[in-house]
Amino acid sequence: MNKSSGKHINYDRLLEGKTAVVTSGAHGMGKYIAKVLIRHGATCVINGMNPEGERTAEEFRKDAPGCFFVRCDMSDRDDTLRFIEEVNQRAGHVDIVVNNVGINRSDFTGQVEDARFEYTQQVNLYGTMRMVRGFLPGMKKTGGAFVHISTIHSVVGMPPNTAYASSKSAINAFSGAVAAEYAAYGIRSNVINPGGIFTGNNDEIFAEIGDDREKLIERGRHGDYGQPDYGGGSAYDIANSTLFLVSGLSRHITGAVIKVDGGTVNQAHRFYDRRLPEDSDELWYQVMKNRFTSVEDI
Amino acid sequence: MKYASMLEGRYALILGGASQVGRAVAQTFAEHGARVAVADEDRQRTCEAFADLKEKIPGVAAFTEKLAAPRMKDLCSAVLSEFPYVDILVGATDLYKTGEAHLFSISDLRQMLGVNLGCAVRCFQELLPGMKKNRRGDVVLFAPDLVDAALPNTAAAAACAGAINSFARNATFDYIRYHIRVNTALYPFDGHPGREPLTGSPESLDAANAALWYACDLSRFVTGETLNVNGGMAYMQAGFERAAGKAGVRA
After folding, report:
1. Among the four residues A45, A276, B101, B159, which has the most C-beta atoms within 10 Å?
2. Would you place residue B235 in the very low, low, confident or very high pLDDT band (cuts 50, 70, 90)?
3. How many domains does one find in chain B?
């Protein structure tokens, strides 16, 4: 990342001229991460298993003509290496890698099968490692930023989750090691631990709900995943935190693990205070209005 | 979200606003559309720090008040006579003393806690009714990066840092139902030039941008969090020097 003085940061275009790779960026959380990065001037390369990613890339190209999709099975070593090679050739240089890919095939430990456990590690951990290894050489010349989307289950247990949790927890430690190894090259590596996040089609929901008070209150209750903050997070919350971590705003932050979870993990003994204010409907309304309507210009 | 004016319509009080970090926070917040009250105890330092800023950015108001918890009620009253409410509180005071633990008097420790945590707590109490009413409050507390890393001669300062961090993590649960968030940003305690692995020395703007992130909607689902703005110092210990040596960038 740019180490020059940030006194003239253009907060409206934080990633002008940057190229970013967002794994599993064709749908869900990855798509919203890519959208926000593009909003700030980045060109995004996305991958995924499903050819629908081509349609997403087409959508992205309206705002950033250089965006493209490459089909990639990140459980497959050779396919992942081929993806990295193709991106390095087509994009020329990659400044940002968001390791968003993640699958959860967890069973109770007593019943876990080696193959299913191994598959989870291959996609989540090995896939992440290969992305970092593959794009490091280019970044060593100019600096760069990695963000790894992990989970709060990397630090707190929730059954049955052993395969998923262990793969993501390994990513947290992996990121810290990458940060230490490559800080001197101006390469940063940070982790986001999302909590209860609505990862579906946020735009459709936003459009449907609009500023309808009753719908916002209902959505707030529906999205209550038990976190102390209300209504759950949206994919944009992860996307905006990713933006912070890949941009110059965080140029002096590396090795961090940031929880974007409405305070879920910090609850001691899973205690949280559910005493709602007397006018709880008003609270739901205000919170969800803010959460669902403040992204209109993205 | 308007990324170029992320604090439009917000009102902020910055304690220790004449410090390097406090001043950078004030400037950044004002540039993002917030009305900003800065408070520090040295009238001359405060006026000097904000003389040029007030001309460039009209949203800044400077207040002089002794940084002691009992004085914060008067300070908040003065601020609230100019602002309708305050929905962002930043604690950027930085009174920390060093020395071996056995040489520290309890009064030294009490003074550090009073200035660095007590003032913020008292202001929070005074501003809480407005935050609750508006269903919006963002509290950002700065502390030295001694929460989970140790240095010689810093036991008392580390105790303060730990107290600030724990206050933030726990207070968030008292008020989250009013959508009031409390977060901590840790900055390099001694600012060793060139020691941080990443960029040598941080600029105060780096801390200001962390405070901006905490205070605006970019982090609206983040609360009770601790963010190290120290170039990775907390995570690397001594090993980074070897890596830096191999990289040939900085030994």
Report:
1. A45
2. low
3. 1
